[in-house]
User: Which sequence fits this backbone?
């Protein structure tokens, strides 16, 4: 513990201010407030999203980062209302363009999905249907939402496939998913997600399975579309290098909670949550080839049995008694920079 911490001691959030009031903005395109998603299992209730709050402005790219098992995919699926039994959302709100998605009917959600909000899933095979050719699938959102006829949608599919970098798309449009490599399937799924130029793209680790060259191409494509059509993006990744390159803001997730939320520059220059500090110290600095990596010790807790107080306390080098009883809420530690730690700035 630093001298400064000993002198000033831990600080609590100002009384009476709910964290989602701090970070949810009225004019945001998407505003997630106090979202809880749970799975009732034989071994207990998994709290995969445990009071998640963050927002995405129009045309903004927000990264959602955290180790595997921290709840990123569950949060993404919750936004699309795609959580299935035994999962459920007992609490929270998901405001999209002023309307709460949790209040919408299944039919209303179907109209939004693939039109105003699209998702690229972590596993492309789960999103592609093996019995239809790629052209049929890429063009489906256009037929469903835009009433496009089959011939026109096929033609548009070829253009979209070209746009995502699938070579000779006119020859591949009638191929089936199993005839595509993993990277090409991922591109096809991205083409499908982009067909209707959504207002918001939720991309769950869209490049994790791809080699670095293709990864760079896909990220460029997402960024181009973000600039050209003003598409907002929630980019889920465990790769901070990707975040630094592509995102405007970052939400850091740990064990079902957002622990830090800030614009990219501020997060990388001055991380305030011990977990973010730990993550950043795991990133090799290309300028120092022999730099030692210091991975964070321990593991993400079992989300069916999270510790009381701060979920990160058992792994935290700054942990004090209070951390095991107080749930730290996000609070503003610098301008537009939020962290959920009792320390203002652990050194
Ligand atoms: P991430 O995407 O950050 O790697 P996930 O969102 O996939 O993490 O998972 C968060 C937690 O939710 C994990 O503990 C996972 O085991 C649990 N989980 C996800 N889906 C289910 C499910 N269908 N049933 C039970 N637990 C689940
Ligand atoms: Mg995931």
Assistant:
């Amino acid at each position: 513990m630093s001298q400064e911490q000993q002198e000033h001691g831990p600080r609590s959030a100002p009384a009476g201010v709910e964290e989602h009031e701090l970070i949810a903005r009225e004019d945001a395109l998407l505003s997630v407030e106090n979202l809880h998603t749970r799975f009732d299992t034989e071994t207990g209730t998994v709290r995969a999203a445990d009071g998640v709050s963050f927002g995405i402005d129009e045309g903004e790219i927000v990264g959602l980062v955290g180790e595997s098992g921290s709840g990123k995919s569950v949060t993404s699926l919750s936004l699309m209302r795609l959580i299935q039994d035994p999962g459920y959302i007992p609490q929270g709100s998901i405001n999209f363009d002023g309307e709460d998605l949790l209040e919408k009917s299944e039919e209303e959600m179907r109209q939004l999905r693939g039109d105003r909000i699209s998702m690229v899933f972590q596993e492309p095979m789960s999103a592609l249907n093996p019995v239809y050719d790629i052209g049929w699938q890429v063009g489906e959102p256009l037929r469903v939402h835009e009433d496009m006829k089959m011939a026109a949608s096929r033609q548009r599919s070829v253009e979209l496939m070209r746009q995502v970098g699938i070579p000779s798309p006119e020859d591949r449009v009638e191929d089936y998913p199993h005839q595509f490599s993993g990277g090409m399937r991922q591109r096809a799924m991205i083409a499908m997600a982009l067909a209707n130029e959504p207002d918001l793209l939720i991309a769950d680790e869209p490049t994790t399975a791809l080699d670095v060259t293709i990864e760079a191409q896909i990220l460029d494509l997402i960024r181009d579309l973000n600039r050209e059509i003003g598409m907002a993006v929630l980019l889920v990744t465990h790769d901070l290098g990707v975040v630094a390159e592509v995102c405007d803001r970052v939400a850091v997730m740990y064990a079902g909670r957002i622990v830090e939320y800030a614009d990219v520059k501020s997060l990388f220059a001055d991380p305030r949550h011990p977990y973010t500090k730990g993550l950043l110290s795991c990133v090799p600095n290309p300028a120092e080839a022999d730099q030692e990596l210091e991975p964070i010790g321990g593991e993400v807790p079992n989300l069916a049995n999270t510790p009381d107080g701060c979920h990160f306390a058992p792994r935290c080098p700054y942990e004090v008694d209070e951390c095991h009883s107080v749930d730290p809420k996000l609070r503003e530690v610098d301008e537009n920079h939020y962290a959920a730690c009792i320390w203002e700035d652990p050194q």
About this structure: The pocket of magnesium ion (ligand 2) is lined by residues 72-73, 122, 204 (CB under 6 Å).
